[in-house]
Task: inverse folding
């Protein structure tokens, strides 16, 4: 309809996994901005994770219905987009007149949208709403930061003989936040922490995540001593969260919502549904530590972050086929135990929004190098708050690495639907009887919690014993277990 502006109200889409609402965390566009198809426009936190939602149409933003921090139900309008901004004046979408309503065109039918694009049908009959479902047609454009002028955008189509001369278009460079004054060593290159290149290399060699450390050097930079202390388990606690703000009554009230709310509900349901049993075992992991050092020295592994957690994951994936019941689910409704041949290995991750447990699909089929890459990608995504809801469902066995916090072990609660979870404690240099003599060895403590409806004491003990045997001598276990 030529000459008539068309206003489309974009509703909060169904983000899957039975979620019914989401909180507006951050708007990536403002009223008056021009958006392109599939451009991220808003960041929403659900009970699963924070996700960026892309634009369903290209056009100009005419109205934003909800401010940041507002919880919105699925299906409620969140933004209005004029898909024909050059067609005329934009009507007020909050209280449209009858004439304006008559001039608004109807959105295309579901089948009229190309499959795979945002708003179009996706495999399985679902509607593609998340970043990554369909091809990306343009680079993401975020709202300009305060005090930073927005570069001119290049036109999407050629324009013939404009009536007035426009300033030349500039290509928006993919620049992150404005850089503050930094030391000459460029210590922040490759990460958000301040550390010199030799310190970064040392951290990589020792498997220490610089993002978890509080620097003791100039301007808060991380030093070699900080890294070595963290590697030995004697370092300071990771960077603390923002100090709480108390009111006049000297109390602080934190809303229970999003990821934290779902975590609480799941933990309560699991704790009072599955009868938990936890057993512990100390193990000499000196050879595991040596195996990690050997991997780091190999040419094909020099650019890969490797830690003992990788060997723990391999030990579990190797032991599960020997004890399939460990990788199962209690189905009370069906009156049966469902044993899984595949292993979706979950790694518990503590994030600013709460505990999440993303998992690596079919991890048992991955070679060691691919398993390492998958674990690194999983952790990086979780820490950035970008874990997709699908990556947090369907887990069959979980590892919680409490050792990174300097804790020896714990009694973890099962994720709902899983039969077992392993707590991996800190590795410490400990006096240990080795070959009849007391020597200093690398020792850790494993804690295995399991559903006693499925796993009895004997099965749990045998599984934990085999995992420990693998860690005590990984090379011999791989050779003998096949």
Result:
């Amino acid at each position: 309809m030529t000459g008539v502006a068309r206003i489309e109200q974009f509703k909060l889409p169904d983000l899957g996994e039975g979620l019914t609402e989401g909180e507006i965390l951050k708007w990536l566009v403002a009223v008056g901005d021009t958006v392109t198809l599939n451009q991220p426009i808003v960041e929403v936190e659900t009970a699963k994770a924070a996700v960026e939602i892309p634009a369903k149409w290209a056009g100009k933003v005419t109205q934003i219905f909800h401010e940041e921090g507002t919880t919105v139900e699925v299906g409620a309008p969140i933004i209005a987009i004029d898909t024909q901004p050059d067609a005329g004046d934009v009507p007020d979408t909050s209280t449209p007149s009858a004439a304006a309503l008559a001039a608004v065109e109807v959105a295309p039918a579901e089948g009229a949208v190309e499959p795979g694009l945002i708003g179009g049908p996706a495999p399985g009959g679902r509607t593609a709403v998340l970043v990554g479902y369909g091809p990306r047609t343009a680079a993401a454009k975020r709202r300009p930061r305060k005090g930073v002028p927005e570069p001119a955008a290049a036109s999407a189509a050629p324009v013939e003989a404009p009536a007035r001369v426009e300033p030349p278009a500039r290509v928006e460079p993919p620049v992150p936040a404005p850089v503050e004054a930094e030391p000459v060593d460029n210590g922040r290159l490759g990460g958000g922490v301040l550390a010199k290149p030799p310190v970064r290399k040392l951290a990589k060699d020792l498997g220490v995540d610089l993002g978890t450390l509080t620097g003791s050097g100039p301007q808060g930079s991380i030093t070699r001593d900080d890294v070595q202390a963290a590697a030995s388990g004697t370092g300071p606690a990771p960077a603390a969260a923002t100090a709480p703000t108390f009111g006049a009554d000297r109390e602080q009230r934190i809303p229970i919502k999003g990821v934290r709310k779902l975590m609480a509900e799941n933990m309560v349901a699991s704790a009072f549904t599955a009868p938990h049993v936890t057993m512990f075992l100390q193990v000499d992991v000196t050879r595991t530590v040596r195996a990690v050092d050997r991997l780091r020295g190999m040419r094909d592994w020099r650019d890969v972050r490797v830690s003992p957690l990788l060997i723990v994951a391999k030990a579990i994936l190797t032991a599960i086929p020997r004890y399939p019941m460990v990788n199962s689910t209690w189905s009370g409704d069906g009156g049966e135990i469902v044993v899984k041949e595949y292993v979706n290995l979950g790694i518990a991750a503590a994030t600013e929004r709460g505990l999440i447990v993303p998992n690596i699909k079919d991890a048992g089929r991955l070679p060691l190098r691919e398993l390492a890459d998958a674990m690194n990608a999983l952790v990086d995504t979780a820490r950035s708050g970008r874990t997709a809801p699908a990556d947090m469902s369907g887990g069959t066995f979980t590892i919680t690495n409490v050792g990174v916090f300097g804790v020896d072990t714990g009694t973890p609660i099962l994720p709902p639907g899983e039969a077992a979870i392993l707590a991996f404690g800190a590795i410490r240099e400990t006096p240990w009887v080795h070959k009849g003599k007391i020597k200093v060895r690398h020792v850790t403590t494993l804690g295995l919690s399991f559903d006693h409806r499925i796993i009895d004491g004997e099965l749990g003990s045998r599984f934990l014993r085999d995992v420990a045997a693998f860690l005590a001598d990984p090379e011999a276990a791989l050779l003998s277990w096949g």
